[in-house]
Design a protein that fits this description.
Helix content is about 30%, strand content about 15%. It is α/β, with parallel strands linked by helices.
């Protein structure tokens, strides 16, 4: 069973999904990888984990939170899981390049594979894939759209110059 709710945010509506024990998805409406709802989905806006996620997101958007403290269970390959784990190590308000992220994984020539895994991150914002940019500082690739990536980076820079 997949439990879900929608949350209004400064970035538009966010879809939150959970298997009850952990957060499995946080998607921006219109995102490329937005999963289709199936018959095993149940709307559950009062589910404790989804309520806690909403609270933490609201704190993030109002500059009261820089890190999320939620149980996470993203579905992905072992390599994707490694990339997503490393994304959570990037400090609030900072950015790194795809090449730097690949090097941190011990795979310095895998920046394209890192970029692909980054693009498949099912937990936008909470697993901060928006903090990865091109080596020349350009904003590249973001499943929710480059305008939203730019918004998130600007938002974090407001209290972390």
């Amino acid at each position: 069973m997949m439990y879900y709710t929608w949350l209004e945010s400064p970035l538009g509506r966010l879809l939150l999904t959970s298997n009850r024990a952990a957060l499995t998805g946080l998607y921006l409406e219109g995102q490329k990888s937005l999963p289709p709802q199936t018959s095993d989905w149940q709307e559950a806006p009062q589910l404790d984990l989804l309520v806690q996620t909403q609270i933490q997101l609201e704190e993030y958007f109002t500059y009261q939170r820089q890190q999320f403290d939620l149980p996470l269970a993203p579905n992905g390959t072992p390599f994707q899981q490694q990339v997503w784990h490393q994304l959570r190590q990037i400090p609030f308000g900072e950015t790194i390049s795809y090449g730097t992220l690949a090097a941190r994984l011990g795979k310095p020539t895998a920046s394209r594979a890192v970029g692909a895994a980054n693009g498949q991150n099912p937990l936008s914002i909470v697993v901060p894939c928006h903090r990865v940019i091109a080596v020349n500082g350009a904003l590249t690739g973001y499943a929710g759209g480059l305008d939203r990536k730019q918004w998130l980076l600007h938002h974090e820079q407001q209290i972390h110059p």
